[in-house]
Amino acid sequence: MTAQEILIKAGQLVLSLSILVIFHELGHFIPARLFKIKVEKFYLFFDPWFSLFKFKKGDTEYGIGWLPLGGYVKISGMIDESMDKEQMAQPPQPWEFRSKPAWQRLIVMIGGVSVNIILAFFIYAMLLWHFGQDYLPYDKVTYGIQTDSLSRSIGLRDGDQIVTIDNKVVDKFNKMSSYIILHQAKSIQVKRDGETLNIRVPDTFVGNVIANKDPFLEARVPFVVKAFSDSGHAKQAGVKVGDEVVSLNGHPIHFHTELVDSLQAFKGNVAQVGMLRGNDTLQFSVPLTNGKMGIYAADYDDSLQMRHFTMVHKSYGFFESLPAGVQQVGESLHNYVLQLKLIFVAKGVKTSESVGGFVTIGSLFPAIWDWQSFWMLTAFLSIILAFMNILPIPALDGGHVLFLLYEVVTGRKPGEKFLEYAQYVGMVILLGLLVFANGNDLWRHVFSKWFQH
Q1: What is the greatest pairwise CA distance in the chain?
Q2: How big is the CA angle at 356 (ends 178 and 441), to the nearest 5 degrees?
Q3: pLDDT per position as a tens digit, 383-416
Q4: Are strands 225-228 and 60-75 parallel, antiparallel or unpaired?
Q5: Domains of the chain by residue range
Q6: Chain centroid to CA 431: how far?
């Protein structure tokens, strides 16, 4: 990955997290102000010792910290990450959080999570309204699937047409691989040479897929040239974007895997490559210095593959996009919960390989600035942020909500000393999780490579 691609990914990550943090904290800030609770600080990122930028308006100091691990609002009279014991030792004031009724404090605490869910819904709905939805139906995968060593190990073969998974139809091809993983599929039904076969999926398969990290299920596509790299001579030989590989030294070639396997046999020689351009078949002499032509293939959903695949486009009117946005929030949340479940129940899934920090999150963004992908990922991260914050862990919103619900039900408020110690425990837990997740990133991307060398 080039330095430019790393910067683009990092830029998208920082912008996405900044948007999510600001909206999350607004979810606390707005109801606090509506209930006339004093908010002392509103910060994007944390500001231990100093801040990058700040100004004061009314009772609130607004600023940007230097530590990009989130953000916060400091609500007067509340035991939070600021651990302001001096303030809490003073008699309660009418404008403080602790002086307000439990139902008002509860609304303030669930505000951040609520806004994150609403934000995800809004983004999904607007994306559907603007872009619609493109997908390849499961029964329109023209040339079947392309397998790797892992999928071949369970009995799948190039060209198989997947009919059902656990005897259930998954209507969109791009959802099949995630369905197999998240639902820990036990069997895959495929059509091969006119027969329907039942492929059993071993219990260890999901763990192997996650450890492998590469896509294990892709649509088999004709090799249509999408772009060129510097590692070959195809472009200099006259090959153009949109050309389709049809032969190599007189032998018919149709698919990506066939071409890659065949090229290695001619490494160091000049190959005669047949290309279909429009209705004409052209021959090019391409030196294979390193066994590569220096071309990238277009995926099934690329416009260059239009003649081979029939993609379905579904448009949404404004009012149609609203329930569709709600449905997508529900699906995303459900899938995320299933992902977490895998860590605890799936055989062969290692926590160290499944949990990651900022590097893992940043790697989800594309290496080019694509606004549609950016907003899709931002919506998904907003759901993750909401889910993680509502967990009943002290120091998170969910911990505060748990204590407030206890107060609402029993009529007794937990003691301030108890809340203070609970906050300490929660902060230790969160710090431990933060170190563990980002430590995994360091191990995977830095230290493990050192040991391999």
Answers
A1: 89
A2: 130
A3: 999 999 998 888 888 988 998 998 888 888 888 7
A4: unpaired
A5: 138-219, 225-298
A6: 22
- pLDDT tens sequence across 258-268: 887 788 777 87
Own/partner pairs, 10-17, CB within 8 angstroms, 24+ separation: 10/362, 11/369, 12/362, 12/365, 12/366, 12/369, 12/374, 12/377, 13/358, 13/361, 13/362, 13/365, 14/68, 15/374, 16/365, 16/374, 16/377, 16/378, 16/381, 17/68, 17/70, 17/381
pTM, 2 dp: 0.84
What residue spans of 175-255 are helical by DSSP H? 176-182, 205-212, 234-237
Q: How far apart are CA 318 and CA 126, in angstroms?
A: 8
CATH class of 225-298: mainly beta
Instruction: Kindly state the tokens that stand for 440.
Output: 């995994």
Judged on CB neighbours under 10 Å (0-12, 13-18, 19+), 419 is buried
Structure confidence at residue 271 (pLDDT): 86
Structural tokens at position 174:
């791009």
The architecture CATH gives domain 138-219: Roll (2.30)
Which pair of structure tokens corresponds to residue 55?
């100004």
Decide: 276 and 190 in contact? Cβ < 8 Å: no
Q: How confident is the model at residue 85 (pLDDT cuts 50, 70, 90)?
A: low
Tell whether the torsion through CA atoms of 265, 267, 270 and 273 is positive or negative: positive
Strand partners, 286: 271
Q: How far apart are CA 338 and CA 335, in angstroms?
A: 5
User: Strand, helix or coil at 445?
Assistant: helix
- Exposure string of 3-36, with b = 16+ CB inside 10 Å and e = fewer, is eeeeebbeebbeebbebbbebbbbbbbebbeebe
**Mean pLDDT, rounded, for 298-317:** 89
pLDDT the model gives residue 450: 57
Q: To 5 degrees, how large is the angle CA 163–CA 345–CA 190?
A: 10
Cα–Cα dist 361/9, whole Å: 10
* Tokens describing residue 371: 């606004």
Q: Measure the CA–CA gap between 423 and 21, rounded to whole angstroms.
A: 20
Residue 446, pLDDT score: 64
- Predicted confidence at residue 30, as pLDDT, reads 96
Q: How confident is the model at residue 36 (pLDDT cuts 50, 70, 90)?
A: very high
